[in-house]
Write a structure and sequence with these properties.
TIM Barrel, alpha/beta, 27 strands, binds beta-D-glucopyranose, Immunoglobulin-like, 6-stranded mixed beta sheet
């Protein structure tokens, strides 16, 4: 298992490539040696060469390979992204070594978000596992495969807190909760970077999008963010801070403005907070074309102004625009930007290249040319076993009336729906270098599981959407969605005929992967109507209806919840998705996933998040009162709460036991519950600890996740789960922006989701 090497778990297995001769000699990977090396190198560089290092570009129509070759020759480019095979990467690094004056190696980056060749569940699905070991596996394998392709950096993890499912990019993050996101982000960074990003099978991470991109107004991508300092520091910043404290070498700057200031122009964020308060020593990289966009934001009057603002605000490297290269020389000449400011940015670029080991060996992730894989997409390069295991853990059972699931491996099963046999959709968006043709669909997975033991019937039943405008939108850049030209009624009739012949109907419905992506915001979060009509029709057959959802965001599912006998949330679960889903449908794996985002009942309820404030007039559904905080045309609260997910077995929880009634400031106490698997199957669940500050100088959330433990219990088995609590878990940013824990009473809430908890109370002295 070479992919484990990065953490030193199997160090003896590392096959070290033959070190290429470095024009810079060999230097120890210490900060002291690095600083001395980089200072000397900087001294040798012309202003143009320095500015060249700040440029990050991808090969494409604007920058064809021939143009990039010339840039490399002149030292006008610092790094490349979106080039993902060893021969291509090697060719560019060769050009640096052969043609450029100083031979400063390029680094190569890519969006390795949920896998490189092997695709794992989308990040939101990964978060549903609440399993840090699974996150570690994904991080290790992704880094291994990315490094094996010659890459040095990934634009991940995305740790933006997301409370608005209209935003397509919720699919890329770990959900609505700060604690869960922080834990997962930290694990991902450590897994990908290992002991050092210079090691053969590790890559450097670039945490994104700094800051608060997840809070764009109305869930509309690239939109404005406006929030209080308290909320920013309490809920939105810790995810980035934890991932950076874990050692991430990079951070990507957000595209949005925050309280009126675009992040790309925000020296308070990028210097005062990131550098001065948090002590971040790595590199800041703009998002795609963000420097140019400062003019559109209306904070820069012309290109020179945009460049001056970005560089002086602390944006070290510019992604995908030519502005730094074009305008920095003039700005330095005129004195509008000091050379010291340029040096500072270049130092960060050279530092990360040093940390990546590129000065010791520019080919460190490439090895000799003869070692390139014969077939980049070879099956043997995939990690299917791990992909299947992680995918199973990411599935969330939302409903299971009268134990509809697991299904028997006999009789006839109708598999219906436009997503049932879609390899492309199984991969999800941002599927890096993954090949759709290598993914297993739900239909294939079911066939594999049954292997002739039962009859499998299939009908597409509907298009993902019949809306021509949306079809065109989804197919704008790739042929992502195949549109069946039969009429909707003919397709439904076909599905009905199939359903009638079966004992049970498995309907695979939801979103196409392109519907939950960057620039894919929705104003409506229901399943498209073509598929809803299909579900209505299937319901008329009276056959047990199992809905298998594929989607990249929480959907509004009130009607589907009432129609389904069972409902399984599968997100976009990656290369082995179909097999993993079949494992759960047939009971070869007992589902244990828990939602990392609340599922609203309708778009009108948004934002719906579990850790909201109480308000002065909280609604009480047992004693409804008009003048309380609620909608009169909809129930309060989500359809499925944060942390929710069922199992094929039943877990029961004891009352909460506290080791003490008071907590001294310098002490700690233990909160415990006893969990019993009182059902008939072995299974895993996630025990969740929430805290609530009853009275404080600021209104505090009704509950906040502070810890969780994933446990596995055999049928009939019992386990006591204990959570230590100390003053750090009780701290918050007060009105004066001091981080304090105020004395008083706190509720300890422990449950298997955020809505049904057992309670204890203690006093902080
Ligand atoms: C996205 C980033 C991504 C970058 C490079 C941008 O449009 O916002 O998340 O890393 O493109 O692909």
């Amino acid at each position: 298992m070479k992919w484990m090497c990065g953490l030193g778990l199997a160090a003896t297995l590392i096959v070290q490539p033959v070190m290429a001769e470095s024009p810079f000699g060999t230097h120890p990977l210490t900060q002291q040696a690095r600083d001395a090396f980089v200072a000397q190198l900087l001294d040798k560089m012309t202003l143009d060469e320095k500015i060249g290092q700040l440029r990050l570009i991808s090969v494409g129509p604007d920058n064809p390979k021939t143009v990039i070759r010339e840039m490399i020759k002149k030292g006008q480019v610092g790094a490349i992204f979106n080039t993902v095979t060893r021969p291509d990467i090697r060719a560019m690094q060769d050009q640096v070594m052969q043609l450029s004056r100083l031979k400063i190696p390029l680094f190569f980056a890519y969006d390795v978000i949920h896998g490189q060749r092997t695709i794992f569940p989308i990040t939101l699905g990964l978060a549903s596992s609440w399993d840090l070991d699974a996150v570690n596996t994904v991080g290790r394998i992704s880094a291994y495969e990315a490094a094996d392709d010659g890459l040095n950096m990934t634009w991940a993890p995305m740790v933006d807190i997301t409370r608005d499912p209209r935003w397509g990019r919720v699919s890329e993050g770990f959900g609505e909760d700060t604690y869960l996101t922080s834990q997962m982000g930290r694990t991902m960074v450590r897994a990908m970077q290992g002991k050092s990003p210079a090691d053969r099978f590790n890559v450097m991470t670039s945490v994104k999008h700094f800051a608060a991109y997840g809070a764009v107004e109305g869930g509309r991508d690239y939109n404005t963010v406006d929030m209080s300092q308290q909320r920013l520091f309490q809920d939105y910043l810790p995810g980035y801070k934890t991932a950076l404290d874990a050692g991430s070498g990079g951070v990507m700057v957000a595209l949005n403005s925050l309280n009126g200031v675009p992040a790309t122009a925000d020296s308070w964020l990028l210097k005062d907070i990131l550098r001065d308060k948090w002590g971040f020593k790595g590199i800041t990289i703009s998002d795609h074309g963000a420097i140019k966009e400062l003019m559109k934001h209306g904070v820069a009057s012309d290109p020179q102004d945009a460049v001056r603002i970005a560089i002086t605000s602390g944006v070290n490297m510019s992604m995908s625009d030519e502005y730094y290269s074009k305008y920095l020389p003039g700005l330095v000449k005129s004195g509008a930007v000091s050379e010291a400011e340029i040096d500072d940015a270049v130092r960060h670029v050279l530092n990360v290249k040093y940390d990546m080991g590129l000065f010791n060996d520019p080919y460190s992730h490439l090895g000799p040319a003869g070692s390139d894989p014969r077939d980049t997409n070879a099956e043997s390069r995939l990690h299917r076993v791990e992909a299947r295991d992680v995918a199973r853990k990411s599935l969330v059972l939302l409903k299971n009336r009268l134990e509809t699931l697991p299904l028997k491996k006999s009789g006839a099963i109708a598999v219906v729906g436009p997503l049932a046999d879609s390899q492309r959709d199984m991969m999800g968006s941002w599927s890096a270098a993954g090949v759709s043709g290598q993914s297993v669909t739900v239909l294939q997975g079911i066939r594999n599981a049954l292997a002739g033991k039962a009859v499998v019937l299939f009908s597409k039943g509907a298009n993902v959407t019949d809306n021509k405008g949306i079809q065109d939108f989804l197919n704008q850049y790739e042929a992502a969605v195949s549109v069946d030209r039969r009429s909707p009624q003919v397709m439904i009739d076909d599905a009905l005929a199939v359903a009638k012949k079966a004992d049970v109907v498995v309907a695979v419905v939801g979103e196409s992967q392109g519907m939950a992506h960057e620039a894919s915001s929705r104003s409506d979060i229901t399943i498209p109507s073509s598929q809803l009509k299909l579900l209505d029709a299937l319901k008329t057959t009276g056959k047990p209806l199992v809905i298998v959802l594929m989607n990249g965001r929480p959907l509004a599912l009130v009607k589907e919840d009432s129609q389904a006998d069972a409902m399984l949330e599968t997100w976009f679960s990656g290369t082995e998705g179909g097999n993993a889903i079949a494992d759960v449908l047939f009971g070869d794996y007992n589902p244990s996933g828990k939602l990392p985002m609340s599922f609203p009942r309708s778009v009108g309820q948004i934002p719906v998040y579990y850790n909201h404030l109480q308000t002065g007039r909280p609604y009480d559904f047992e004693h409804p009162n008009k003048y309380t905080s609620h909608y009169y045309d909809a129930a309060n609260g989500p359809l499925y709460p944060f942390g929710y997910g069922l199992s094929y077995t039943r877990f029961t929880l004891s009352e909460v036991r506290l080791s003490a009634k008071t907590l001294p400031r310098n002490g700690s106490l233990n909160a415990s519950v006893t969990v019993t698997n009182s059902g008939k199957r072995d299974g895993a669940t996630v025990v969740q600890l929430y805290l609530h500050d009853q009275t404080a100088s600021l209104s505090r959330p009704v509950e906040e996740l502070k810890s969780f433990k994933r446990i596995f219990l055999k049928a009939g088995e019992t386990q006591t789960v204990t959570f230590p609590i100390d003053v750090n878990a009780l701290k918050f940013w007060n009105a004066r922006m001091q981080y304090v824990a105020e004395p008083g009473r706190f509720d300890v809430l422990i449950g298997l989701d955020s809505a049904r908890t057992r309670k204890g109370t203690f006093t902080l002295l």
